[in-house]
Amino acid sequence: xxxxxxxxxxxxxxxxxxxxxxxxxxxxxxxxxxxxxxxxxxxxxxxxxxxxxxxxxxxxxxxxxxxxxxxxxxxxxxxxxxxxxxxxxxxxxxxxxxxxxxxxxxxxxxxxxxxxxxxxxxxxxxx
Length: 127
Description:
Layout: E1 6-9, H1 13-24, E2 27-28, E3 32-33, E4 40-45, E5 51-56, E6 75-78, H2 82-94, E7 98-105, E8 111-117, E9 121-126
Parallel strand pairs: 1-5, 6-9
Antiparallel strand pairs: 2-4, 3-4, 4-5, 7-8, 8-9
């Protein structure tokens, strides 16, 4: 069994799509729009087959994104090397994204950084 895709609601669908394409190498489909419900989405595909569905619907409310809460905490992307973690972290910092932690080696041995991106959601960059 494998995870087929993950999904997240966002307020600014195009900005979220552009983030995953520009910084994380995703490839977007042309999008979907249900004119009856107002639901819109993009599927972003990544090299290893993983997919992320970005969704928007007028009636969806914004949830609390405090640092620690139950539910999904972050999405992690593997760059393949410590150097690439460092480079991408700096690129995101230069682009104005807040680096919450790292790059660093965690107590359980991960080399990572955590970025506050896409409407306050955490993106982890790791080896």
